[in-house]
Specification:
The complex is a heterodimer of chains A (290) and B (367). Chain A has 290 residues and is α/β, with parallel strands linked by helices. In chain A, 38% of the residues lie in helices and 23% in strands. In chain A, strand 12 (204-210), helix 7 (215-226) and strand 13 (231-236) form a beta-alpha-beta unit. In chain B, helix 4 packs across helix 5 (152-168) and helix 10 (303-316) packs parallel to helix 11 (332-340). Chain B has twelve helices and 18 strands. Chains A and B meet through helix 4, helix 5 and helix 8 of A and strand 7, strand 8, helix 3, strand 10 and helix 8 of B.
C-alpha cells in the first residue's frame, strides 16, 4: 500500500496534447502508470500514441473508468479545468499548473470541497510518486526507490533533493507527495501526515516546509495529537530575505508565525527531528530506521 | 471603484505643490508618495493651511529618504474634516482558505498595536470566495466593529465596494487606513495600501507596466524583464537555482558553510538554455558577486538545456567569476556530459549541493 496513487490508479491528463502534458503524461505511462485518457476540448475522438482523447472529463470517465486527473492546462483556464475534473467525480485531481491567480485558487478550493468528494493536490505542485507503483506529475522517477519512508513537501525541487538523498543511502520511499507552494493548496501537510500515519507501509516521514503561512505550525499541532511515526523535518528559508510585505493585515493574521525559526521551534517542541541542513535528511532518517 | 476619496493632485516639485494647493483651496495635506508604510511617523505627511505652506511642506518632503525609499513626488489633497478614523482590510486568510475582512473603529497609525492589546477591537469575518461578500456580512462588520450607527448604510456600502475591488482587481490585499467618517457623515477612504497578484497580470495588462515603473533597482528591473525571480542580497556568492524552495535552501547551505549569498535567483520551472544564459547575464551587473553557484535539480527543467545555457553564456559574455555547477534530476547525465565536453577552467563541477556550496564559498573568498 502506498498513499493516493498505486497500481489501481487510472489516469486522465487534461492537456495531454500540449507539449508539457505530453512529455510528462507519457513519462508517467513509461513508469507504469495506467494512462487511460487525455482531455482536450475540440480534439475528442482522436488518439495520441494509443491514448484516446475526449472533449470533456466526464466523457473520459464514462469511457475509461479514470479515477485520477492530472491538470496541465495554462493558468487562464486551469481553475475551470480543476472544477471540471471535480465535477466529473474523480477521486484525486493533481494540478501541476503554476501561476494561477490567488483569487481563482481560493474559489476553486472552496468549490471543490463544498461540491465534491474529490481531493485536490496542488496547484503549482510537482505531483506525486509511489515508487515502483505509479507516478503522476513531473517528478523524475529515476531518483526514487521503493521503500517505507513517506516524503511530503511544499517545494518541488526540494522534494527531489530529499528523495535523492534518501535513495543515495539506499533508503526507499512509500510515496513522495509535493503539495505545492501556493497560498491555497488543495491538500495540506496535515492531510498527508494523516494518510502516512494510517499507511501500513510507511514507517517514517520526511516533511519539508518553507517560510510563510502557518501550515507547518498546524502540522506540529497535528503531529502532537495524532502521529506516532518518527518525523524528520527541514524548513527552507532560514536565511531568506523577508518576502512581499502584506501590510498590517498580514502582520495581524500571522501574529509572529511564518518565520523559519517559529516553524522549527513548533516542530521541535512536538518531538520532530528538525534539521538546519537539507543535505542531512538522508542521514537523519537512516539513524532512525536502522 | 465607487468609494469616495478626497480631491487631490500629484506634484513633483514644491512649486507644483503650491499650485495644486491653490487649485484645491483651503487647508491641504501633503503626502510623500513611496511604496512603504510608516511615512506619517517618518515626517512624510504634513498639513498646510495655505499654498505657501504647501510649497514649504513639499520642499521638506521631496528628496526625503523613508526606509530606503527616496521621495520623488508628493500627493496634495484637500484636508478632510475627520469625525472618526476607522480601519478596513480584505485579504486571503491562508489558514482558513477564505477571504478575511477586518474592520475596526480604532483606525489610524497604530492598528497593529490595537490588534495586539485589544483583539476584540478588530472585528474579523471570513467570506466564502465562491459566494462573495453578502449584504448582511457588510452590515455585520459595521455593527460588530461599533462604527457610528448613523453611518451604517454608507459604511456597509463602502465595505461592499472595497471587497468588489479586492476581487475584481485581483488584489492580495486591500487595506484602507484610515477609512474616515467626516463631520458631514460621509465615509471617505483617506489612505490605502493595495498589493496586486502578479499571477493575475494577464487579466490586467496595465498593472505590469505600473509595477515596472516603480521598480527602481536596475538589476531587479533587468531580471523582471527576463522573467527571473531575483532579489538582491549583500553577500558574495551569486546563486542561481530552480524552484523557490531549492534556492532558499541553497542560501541556507551557503550560510551554513560560512559564506553569504549575493542574491536569490529562481529561474522557475521549465527553464531553457536562454533562461540560464540570461540569469548569468543578470549576475554580471552585480559587482558584489565573487563566485557563482548554479544548483539545479531537474524535474520539469532539463539539465541538458541548463548546460547548453551555461556554455552559451560563457561564449557570449565576459563572465568575471568561477561558476560551480551542480546538476541532478531530469537529463542530469546528459547535462554533465555537455559541460565536460567543453573544458573551461572557470567551470567547476560538484557532485552534491553541500560540496557545491563549499566550493563556491572558498572561491568567493579567494577571488
Amino acid at each position: 500500500m502506498a498513499i493516493l496513487i498505486d497500481e489501481s490508479t487510472r489516469l486522465v491528463v487534461q492537456g495531454l496534447t500540449g507539449k508539457e502534458g505530453q512529455f510528462h503524461g507519457f513519462r508517467n505511462r513509461d513508469y507504469g502508470t495506467n494512462l487511460v485518457a487525455g482531455v482536450t476540448p475540440g480534439k475528442g475522438g482522436t488518439d495520441l500514441s494509443g491514448v484516446p482523447i475526449f472533449n470533456t472529463v466526464s466523457e473520459a470517465v464514462d469511457a475509461t473508468g479514470a479515477n485520477t486527473a492530472m491538470t496541465f492546462v495554462p493558468p487562464p483556464f486551469a481553475a475551470d479545468a480543476i472544477m471540471e475534473a471535480a465535477a466529473a467525480g474523480l477521486a484525486l485531481v493533481v494540478a501541476i499548473t503554476e501561476g494561477i491567480p490567488a483569487h481563482d485558487e481560493a474559489r476553486v478550493y472552496n468549490y471543490v470541497t463544498q461540491t465534491s468528494a474529490s481531493r485536490l493536490l496542488g496547484p503549482n505542485c510537482p505531483g506525486l510518486l509511489s515508487p515502483g507503483k505509479a507516478n503522476v506529475g513531473i517528478m523524475p522517477p529515476e531518483i526514487a526507490l521503493p521503500g517505507r519512508v513517506g516524503v511530503v513537501s511544499r517545494s518541488g525541487t526540494l522534494t527531489y533533493q530529499a528523495v535523492h538523498e534518501l535513495t543515495m543511502l539506499g533508503i526507499g520511499q512509500s510515496s513522495c507527495i509535493g503539495i505545492g507552494g501556493d497560498p491555497v493548496p488543495g491538500t495540506s501537510f496535515v492531510d498527508v501526515l494523516d494518510l502516512f500515519e494510517r499507511d501500513d507501509e510507511t514507517d517514517a516521514i520526511v516533511m519539508i516546509g518553507e517560510i510563510g503561512g502557518d501550515a507547518e505550525e498546524q502540522a506540529a499541532d497535528f503531529i502532537k495529537a495524532n502521529v506516532t511515526k518518527p518525523v524528520v523535518s527541514y524548513i527552507a528559508g532560514v536565511t531568506a530575505p523577508p518576502g512581499k510585505k502584506m501590510g498590517h493585515a498580514g502582520a495581524i493574521i500571522s501574529g509572529g508565525k511564518g518565520t523559519a525559526a517559529a516553524k522549527m521551534e513548533a516542530l521541535a517542541a512536538v518531538g520532530v527531528t528538525v534539521l538546519d541542513d537539507p543535505t542531512e535528511i538522508g542521514n537523519a532518517i537512516k539513524a532512525i530506521v536502522d | 471603484m465607487g468609494v469616495p476619496v478626497p480631491q487631490g493632485r500629484l506634484a513633483t516639485s514644491p512649486t507644483f505643490a503650491g499650485i495644486a494647493a491653490n487649485e484645491l483651496g483651503g487647508t491641504v495635506v501633503v503626502k510623500a508618495q513611496v511604496q512603504v508604510g510608516g511615512r506619517g511617523k517618518a515626517g512624510g505627511i504634513k498639513v498646510a493651511a495655505s499654498p505657501t505652506e504647501a510649497e514649504a511642506a513639499a520642499a521638506e518632503i521631496l528628496g526625503m529618504d523613508i526606509k530606503g525609499h527616496t521621495v520623488h513626488s508628493v500627493w496634495v489633497e484637500e484636508a478632510s474634516d475627520i469625525a472618526a478614523e476607522y480601519y478596513a482590510s480584505f485579504t486571503l486568510d491562508r489558514s482558513a482558505k477564505k477571504h478575511l475582512a477586518m474592520v475596526s473603529a480604532q483606525g489610524g497609525v497604530d492598528i497593529e498595536g490595537v490588534a495586539e492589546s485589544d483583539p476584540d477591537a478588530v472585528v474579523k469575518l471570513h467570506i466564502d470566495p465562491v459566494v462573495g461578500m453578502t449584504e448582511w456580512q457588510a452590515r455585520e462588520l459595521v455593527y460588530r466593529a461599533k462604527l457610528e450607527p448613523a453611518a451604517t448604510r454608507k459604511a456597509a456600502a463602502a465595505l461592499k465596494k472595497l471587497y468588489e475591488a479586492f476581487v475584481s482587481l485581483d488584489c492580495d490585499l486591500v487595506e484602507v487606513n484610515p477609512l474616515i467618517l467626516t463631520g458631514a457623515g460621509e465615509i471617505v477612504a483617506l489612505d490605502a495600501k493595495v498589493t496586486l497578484d502578479a499571477n493575475a497580470f494577464y487579466r490586467h495588462p496595465d498593472f505590469a507596466d505600473f509595477e515596472a515603473a516603480f521598480t527602481r533597482d536596475p538589476i531587479e528591473a533587468m531580471a523582471m524583464e527576463a522573467d527571473l525571480n531575483f532579489i538582491k542580497l549583500d553577500g558574495s556568492v551569486g546563486i542561481i537555482g530552480n524552484g523557490a524552495g531549492l534556492v532558499m535552501s541553497t542560501l541556507d547551505v551557503v550560510d551554513l558553510v560560512g559564506g553569504r549569498a549575493a542574491n536569490f535567483l529562481d529561474v522557475g520551472g521549465g527553464a531553457g538554455a536562454d533562461t540560464i544564459s540570461n540569469a548569468l547575464e543578470v549576475l554580471t551587473q552585480d559587482s558584489g558577486v565573487k563566485s557563482v553557484l548554479i544548483n539545479i535539480f531537474g524535474g520539469i527543467t532539463r539539465c541538458d538545456l541548463v548546460a547548453h545555457g551555461i556554455i552559451e553564456a560563457l561564449g557570449r559574455l565576459d563572465l568575471p567569476w568561477p561558476i560551480v555547477v551542480r546538476l541532478d534530476g531530469t537529463n542530469a547525465e546528459e547535462g554533465r556530459a555537455i559541460l565536460a565536453a567543453s573544458p573551461n577552467e572557470q567551470l567547476i563541477a560538484a557532485a552534491t549541493m553541500r560540496e557545491a556550496a563549499e566550493k563556491a564559498v572558498v572561491l568567493a573568498g579567494s577571488n
